[in-house]
Amino acid sequence: MEMLKEESLKIYLWENRLKTFEGWPFDEDCSCTPENMAKAGFIHTPSENGPDVAMCFFCLKELEGWEPEDDPVKEHKSHSPSCHFISLKKKVEELTMEEFFKLQKERQKFTVNKACKDAITRFEEDAKERRANIIKTAMGEE
Ligand SMILES: [Zn+2]
After folding, report:
1. pLDDT at residue 19 above 80?
2. Residues with CB under 5 A from ligand 1 (ion)
3. pLDDT at residue 66, rounded to an integer
């Protein structure tokens, strides 16, 4: 089963999320240190224009524009209230097998949802381009 592959489960451990925070702009004397970010479920997903983009490994919510005093847990909860991971009452290591599988099932829903949304966005962009081309052709501006 895809969802039981070791790779996708490793990220449940905060130490593994912490490793992604290389080059994170906030380190000392602030709330959003790599440690706190990783504990709050985030992984570092920097882009060319956003060195401080972080994404929850579970709900896939991306947040950027961090300020030193931002509390990663609070930010996570307020921007993604439906995330099961950030609302967990126990540590992942303390969950029973059943609880863990239920959690992983919820995670899959977020993954599928995001994949669908991305596909729709790609489709719409493609359709827009085609429409523009058709109009151009119709107007004889080839
Ligand atoms: Zn989340």
Report:
1. yes
2. 56, 58-59, 80, 83
3. 96
Predicted local confidence at residue 29, as pLDDT = 87
2-138, superfamily in CATH?
Answer: Inhibitor Of Apoptosis Protein (2mihbC-IAP-1); Chain A (1.10.1170.10)
Tell me the CA–centroid distance for residue 104 and ligand 1, in Å: 13
CA of 50 to the centre of ligand 1 (A): 19
At position 48, the amino acid (one-letter code) is: E
**CA of 106 relative to ligand 1 center, distance in Å:** 11
Whole-model pTM: value is: 0.84
Looking at residue 5, its pLDDT comes to 59
Phi/psi region, residue 23 (left: phi>0; alpha: psi -120 to 50; beta: rest), is: left
Alpha-carbon distance values, 95 to 1, 51, 102 (Å): 21, 34, 10
